[in-house]
Specification:
Elements (H helix, E strand, L loop, with lengths): L6 E7 L9 E9 L2 E11 L1 H7 L7 H22 L6 H9 L11 H11 L6 H17 L10 H13 L4 H20 L27 H8 L6 H15 L5 H6 L5 E2 L2 E5 L13 E5 L2 H10 L20 H25 L9 H13 L4 H8 L4 H7 L5 H9 L5
Antiparallel strand pairs: 1-2, 2-3, 4-5, 5-6
Helix pairs in contact: 4-5, 9-11, 9-12, 9-13, 13-14, 14-15
């Protein structure tokens, strides 16, 4: 390397948080005016990032994280020194020591794992788990599948297999879009040719966007349903809490803490938007109706300190995978007992937790509340997203309006 070349390594904190609210620490490599950054496996809050650079750091956990960060820089320096002539490609090969995958008749499993490894520093744990699920599903259908074996006929057969397992259209769409992403990766890596791309002659099934709002009568029946079964009452209460709480999704319910209660309101940011730029985040303020306070009193955590989760779905010390699993179980259990209730009511529709959000928005729309207010209360960035939530007008309204056509 000539003396004129400038090569430096340092770390930064990304300015965009992950879904868990933490910011990834990135290694930055700067060479002759060009730079690339690489995510590490260390995530911090903004306050922790400030503290970690202090020479008087006393927190043992942060000391360990600081040591990890310093090790990334040392590893990068060692990798750079091994290169006769620095290139970013050469650096990446030396730094990451990527396992070389044979491009001859590569398997779907190896190709997917290569894709997952490439995206490891970008994906959330939830996305990684989804790809682990598709690996298991495809492996169960056809073990040792080769990439060249993914044809339009295979995709149709796999779709039929998912039908036999009674997977929903949404689930089938997710699985098949993941296979498509792996195929695109395989083409980019030259494992298969563009001519072999199987999705040119196959269409991924897409669910029609059904309106998921309850009528006023059904809303009343569900919220006022009487049961002696504890789990059924819990399901009704959490569904009602979501409905009355601006259609709050169940992940946000699980993540509420007592410190979010400000006087007569709960104030929070949607977990779905925490990874966006701060300027796009909207604080949602919900008035605590008496029914919501009753639900908190009935199912809330015993320890009501500010930092405590309101509902004992999560607890401090959980890692991201455990949190995802706990929230998924929370939703699954609620949906299970909602089905018991709707079966008792002899409803044909399967009501789920997500109906609460749509029902909240549609109920306000039918009452004449401006869509701009509904959009803001849902935490949407634009009104177009809100309009997608709103159900069509009721049959009675359609009938009444049709009668106007000949009412001269």
């Amino acid at each position: 390397m000539s003396k004129g070349n400038v090569l430096t390594y340092f770390t930064i904190l990304e300015n965009r948080a992950k879904k868990n609210g933490l910011f990834p620490v990135c290694l930055v490599v700067y060479f002759n005016g060009a730079k690339r950054r690489y995510r590490t496996n260390v995530d911090l809050t903004e306050d922790q990032w400030i503290k970690i650079k202090s020479p008087k750091l006393r927190d043992e956990t942060l000391k360990e994280k600081r040591a990890d960060i310093q090790s990334f820089i040392r590893k990068a320096e060692a990798a750079g020194k091994k290169l006769h002539e620095f290139t970013f490609e050469g650096f990446e090969e030396e730094y990451f020591k990527k396992k070389q995958i044979s491009t001859i008749d590569i398997s779907f499993k190896d190709c997917t794992k290569g894709f997952m490894e490439e995206k490891a520093n970008e994906w959330s744990i939830k996305t990684t788990l989804m790809y682990e699920t598709i690996l298991a599903s495809v492996g169960e259908f056809q073990s040792n599948l080769r990439m060249k074996g993914i044809t339009p006929d295979f995709l149709r057969q796999y779709e039929n297999h998912l039908n036999s397992e009674k997977k929903s259209i949404s689930t089938k769409g997710i699985y098949l879009r993941q296979i498509r992403a792996v195929c695109n990766y395989a083409i980019r890596k030259k494992y298969i040719t563009r001519e072999k791309y199987p999705f040119e002659n196959y269409s991924i099934p897409a669910a029609q966007k059904n309106k998921r709002a309850l009528s006023n009568d059904d809303l009343k029946s569900l919220i006022e349903y009487k049961t002696e079964v504890l789990e059924e009452q819990k399901a009704i209460d959490f569904w009602t809490f979501s409905y009355l709480g601006n259609g709050m999704n169940f992940k946000d319910i699980a993540m509420l803490r007592y410190s979010d209660i400000k006087g007569e309101n709960i104030k929070f940011y949607r977990s779905k938007t925490k990874s966006t730029n701060k300027g796009e985040q909207k604080e949602i303020s919900i008035f605590l109706l008496p029914r919501m306070l009753e639900i908190i009193q009935r199912w809330g955590s015993v320890n009501k300190t500010g930092k405590e989760y309101i509902f004992p779905v999560l607890h401090d010390g959980m890692n991201a995978r455990d949190e995802i699993a706990a929230i998924a179980q929370f939703i699954k259990t609620t949906n299970k007992y909602l089905k018991h209730i709707t079966d008792s009511l002899e409803w044909s529709n399967k009501v789920t937790t997500y109906f609460a959000r749509h029902s909240y928005a549609t109920r306000l729309k039918r009452a004449g509340v401006p869509i701009a207010y509904i959009s803001d209360s849902l935490g949407h960035v634009n009104i177009a997203t809100t309009e997608n939530y709103l159900s069509s007008f009721t049959d009675e309204t359609v009938k009444t309006n049709a009668g106007l056509l000949l009412d001269f």
